[in-house]
Specification:
By secondary structure, the protein is an alpha/beta fold. The chain has one domain: Rossmann fold (3-Layer(aba) Sandwich), CATH 3.40.50. It has nine helices and eight strands. The strands form two sheets. The protein has a five-stranded parallel sheet, with helices on both faces. The chain has a three-stranded antiparallel sheet with strand order 6-5-7. Helix 2 packs across helix 3. The protein binds adenosine-5'-diphosphate and zinc ion. Adenosine-5'-diphosphate (ADP) binds next to helix 2 and helix 3. Zinc ion binds next to loops.
Length: 213
């Protein structure tokens, strides 16, 4: 399957993407994970992206398109891909359209995960992430078995730098301003699937139905 997952920070894009990879071997591509990895490794990309991310701002479109242009050509994308956190702006969506046309690939759909703002805020302040493998936990609803330690890889489970209250509120504003308009963009393309996203399991079943799986 080839899907875009749209939705505010904390809407559950990463969780849903991980569940979908288990259905047909499609790969999850999270630009946020790629960027956090680059920051951690201290690469040139990481150095360029770090300040934007920490402030809750978007990384410039050119950097993101550079990453995605390469990433979508990799062999593990052949069974399909779940784009998690990309595209995030209209220029990225336009550039993706050209990129997919060049690669001769079509999307199955664009999933728009709708979640009320109070649920989002609660999820983001209680969310914890493994810095090694990107696994997502929640201190209230899904804590790791050992506090601060990833069940899957043993890596450190921490609150992200951009999950302070200030950066969260900034990310939600940026989302409303820059990313929410993508719903209209894909609606016009006839590709938008609007889904109420309070439960990831229900979301995955709805997507499977739409794909005829
Ligand atoms: P979330 O969806 O929880 O906000 P992500 O992990 O997707 O978080 O992204 C974290 C940060 O990485 C964003 O706040 C932004 O700075 C940067 N980022 C990720 N994807 C993109 C993108 N497609 N375009 C621009 N910046 C991005
Ligand atoms: Zn881990």
């Amino acid at each position: 399957m080839r899907l875009i997952l749209l939705g505010a920070p904390g809407a559950g894009k990463g969780t849903v993407a991980k569940m979908l990879t288990e259905i047909d071997g499609s790969v999850q591509i999270s630009t946020g994970d790629i960027l956090r990895g680059a920051v951690k490794d201290g690469t040139e990309l990481g150095k360029q992206a770090e300040a934007f991310m920490k402030a809750g701002d978007l990384v410039p479109d050119e950097l993101i398109m550079g990453i995605m242009g390469e990433r979508l050509k990799e062999k593990d994308c052949e069974p399909g891909f779940l784009l998690d956190g990309f595209p995030r702006t209209i220029p990225q969506a336009e550039a993706l359209k050209t990129l997919l046309a060049d690669l001769g690939l079509a999307l199955d759909g664009v999933v728009n995960l709708n979640v009320p703002r109070d649920v989002i805020l609660d999820r983001l302040t209680t969310r914890r992430t493994c810095t090694d493998c990107g696994a997502i936990y929640n201190v209230k609803s899904n804590p790791p078995k050992e506090e601060g330690q990833c069940d899957k890889c043993g890596g450190p489970v921490v609150q992200r730098d951009d999950e302070t209250e200030e950066a969260i509120s900034k990310r939600l504003d940026v989302y409303n301003e820059k990313t929410a308009p993508l719903a209209g963009f894909y609606q016009n393309e006839g590709m938008l699937w609007d889904i109420e996203a309070t439960s990831s399991g229900v979301v995955v079943n709805t997507i499977k139905e739409k794909l005829g799986l």
